[in-house]
Amino acid sequence: MPSVRALNSAGVSRFREFLRLIRRGDVASTIPGFAFDDSLAVPLSGGVRVEPQRFATKLEMAAYLFDALRPLQRPELMSDVGLWGWIALFYFDQLAPVQESGTRMSREDYHYIPDLQGRYAYRHLVAGPYKLYALHGESARLFLYPEVHQHGSFVWQITWRGEMIANRGLVEAMDSLYFDAERKRPKRGASSADNPGNVRRLMTVLRQLEFNFDLQGMNAGEILALLPAEFDRWKR
Hints:
Elements: E1 5-7, H1 9-24, E2 41-43, H2 58-68, H3 81-90, H4 92-95, H5 127-136, H6 141-144, H7 153-159, H8 162-165, H9 168-178, E3 179-180, E4 185-186, H10 199-209, H11 220-226, H12 232-235
Antiparallel strand pairs: 1-2, 3-4
Helix pairs in contact: 2-5, 9-11
């Protein structure tokens, strides 16, 4: 198992150039060598290691990394651009898989190199799921059910408002409403605008409730009790 590294500024620049080539249509069959170049990717102290394994879902990946990176857990961990950039590079085959056309699926840079200052903070394909799992554990499964290179529709609904994503009671309430434990994915129609009580409608109702209730201080049961009758179908 290789030791975890962190890209330095030159390594981040090299990664951006690599992403530019991928978007141009180039295909890299292996992890680029600069991922293990000491002049671009610095080994971290403590001998923390990760395995080159495949993950079925974002939840599986986040749970694995939460355990593997436990010796590194500290307040500044989430702001370590070089660390999360290197981990994304290490698992790049899964984050940007080769498609039938022979080219790689590749997104904008912030999906692989964290943009921690703006609205893209949760869109990093590794750091975002890790933070959700660190905050909520298995209760975050509604947002972490897709394959690792996908985001899923639910994560967009909540991560654009930072105060909501940190609300444990709300996340547990959403899990209770919309997650199908047997299928291990959201209930059918939960994100459809045509269905009463869908997740978008929930966001609207919550914004209205915030005027009169301290949602941050409520548990899941208390939040569910506030919802109008249109949400009853999802409680079953």
